[in-house]
UniProtKB/TrEMBL annotation:
It comes from the Archaea. This is 6-pyruvoyl-tetrahydropterin synthase. Gene3D superfamilies: 6-pyruvoyl tetrahydropterin synthase/QueD. PANTHER family: 6-PYRUVOYL TETRAHYDROBIOPTERIN SYNTHASE, PYRUVOYL TETRAHYDROBIOPTERIN SYNTHASE. GO terms for molecular function: 6-carboxytetrahydropterin synthase activity; metal ion binding. Its cofactor is Zn(2+). InterPro entries: 6-PTP_synth/QueD, 6-PTP_synth/QueD_sf. Keywords: Lyase, Metal-binding, Zinc.
Amino acid sequence: MKTGIYKEVQIDTSHRLLHYHGKCANLHGHRWKIEVWMEGEPAPDTQIVIDYSLIKKVVEKYDHQIILNEEDPMVPRIAEFHPVITTPGDPTSELIAVLIRDDIHNTCHEMGITAKVTKIRVWESPTSCAEIT
């Protein structure tokens, strides 16, 4: 029997959008709310689809980090003082949703967990989010 689960994690990060013309082209921060829906078969011994703390651990790798487009000229300079997570394109809420989904899937695969992300929402403000299914 397939079972669905849900986990919410909040993180703080800074980013900027290199190819955007407006305020978001400046380095700025957000308190992001990440919502993850997963589906899978509960393990026979534990009846757990995936440990909620594993989802939290994967998402929290982004907490208190600077996330920039890998082409951003700020990367080498900031990296002299603080680690930078780079992305293949501007780190929008849309792209961050894809990256977190892929990170969760890769972690599950490495651990032999068959659960899959069915939906993820990345809120960059209380009124704006990206959703992938």
